[in-house]
Specification:
The chain is of the alpha+beta class. The chain has two domains: 134 residues, Ankyrin repeat-containing domain (Serine Threonine Protein Phosphatase 5, Tetratricopeptide repeat, Alpha Horseshoe); 162 residues, no CATH class. Helices cover 37% and strands 15% of the residues. A hairpin with a 5-residue loop joins β2 and β3. It is elongated and about 80 Å long. The chain starts with a helix and ends in an 8-residue tail after the last strand.
Length: 311
């Protein structure tokens, strides 16, 4: 293969920028042709270049051969790149999996079609317990996961018998804790839900009461999906005394986690809305978000009753 690659690139140097060259790199990684990979690296390809619709990199293609994996790592391949751990799981290479885990490889990321964790991939392909034991994620620790995002935390009282707790950070953000251990109708994964009051509302009761109301409804109906609108009754009424908001929009936070079986866990924010905003969100939530951006509102959905409604 080396002679063919050299001849092709000598005749057509610009081919190094085409998908075909990345296919050569992937093929060489899978078959362990180190000289081919060295030649392609010399001509400008990198080990981060991906090939195919799943975006696989050379390291993911070589994951079944520990010697090639070592060579790629020594030459700068990223052990945490998407698909690498999935490739090792698919090949069932204990040595490669152990090395990737030690280097920070991600056991929670879901890749492929259908999206699957490395554990699920190995399990589906019938890999043995030695492989599965390396890929099995410990039981999800919701408190530790949230503490990294809402530190410091203080537990808030919840109604007797509530299947979750509330925690509150120093900046007033109130978040559910333990909701993700309960299945929610309409959700493929699980969620924790938060509301981020403005500084002067951090001690107010209405953000916590609204969060509790929404979550208790969610345990009975599929209302916790990104970009869902939730009104406070019909017709919607203010969320509290002196509070102009009559409902909220659920917004995806930039954080995620997973349960031990690979089930994804997401954080959703409740973004309280004025009456006209709620009406627009029910028609076209993406248009409402665009209007917020045009108005220069912060990226974080802060629940600030002093915020004027959109014109």
């Amino acid at each position: 293969m080396l002679d063919l690659v050299v001849q092709a690139l000598d005749a057509h140097p610009d081919w190094i920028d085409l998908p075909e060259a990345r296919r050569w790199m992937a093929s060489a990684a899978r078959s362990g042709e180190l000289e081919v990979m060295e030649e392609l690296l010399r001509r400008g390809l990198t080990l981060d270049d991906t090939y195919g619709g799943l975006g696989l990199c050379p390291l993911s293609r070589a994951a079944g051969d520990p010697a090639v994996v070592d060579w790629l790592l020594e030459h700068g391949a990223d052990p945490t790149a998407p698909g690498v751990m999935a490739g090792a799981a698919a090949y069932g290479s204990v040595e490669t999996i152990a090395k990737l885990v030690a280097l920070g490889g991600d056991l929670r990321t879901r890749t492929g079609k259908p999206p699957s964790t490395p554990f699920q991939i190995a399990q589906r392909l019938g890999r043995g317990e030695e492989v599965l034991s390396l890929l099995r994620v410990e039981d999800f620790d919701a408190r530790a996961w949230l503490e990294a995002r809402l530190d410091p935390l203080s537990t808030q009282p919840t109604p007797a018998g509530a299947p979750f707790a509330l925690v509150q950070s120093a900046d007033g953000t109130v978040c559910t804790l333990g909701l993700c251990t309960h299945p929610l109708a309409g959700m493929d994964g699980r969620v924790e839900v938060l509301i981020r009051p403005s500084q002067d509302q951090a001690a107010a009761a209405w953000p916590r009461e609204w969060l509790l109301s929404v979550v208790h409804r969610a345990l009975e109906a599929p209302v916790l999906q990104p970009l869902n609108t939730i009104g406070n009754g019909e017709p919607p009424r203010p969320l509290g005394d002196g509070i102009p908001f009559v409902g909220s929009l659920t917004v995806d936070e930039e954080h995620d986690g997973a349960l031990a079986d690979g089930t994804p866990v997401r954080l959703l924010s409740l973004f309280p809305l004025h009456p006209g905003e709620l009406a627009l969100a029910r028609q076209d939530p993406l248009r409402l978000i665009a209007r917020f951006q045009e108005a220069g509102l912060p990226d974080e959905p802060v629940a600030d009753p002093a915020r004027p409604p959109l014109a």
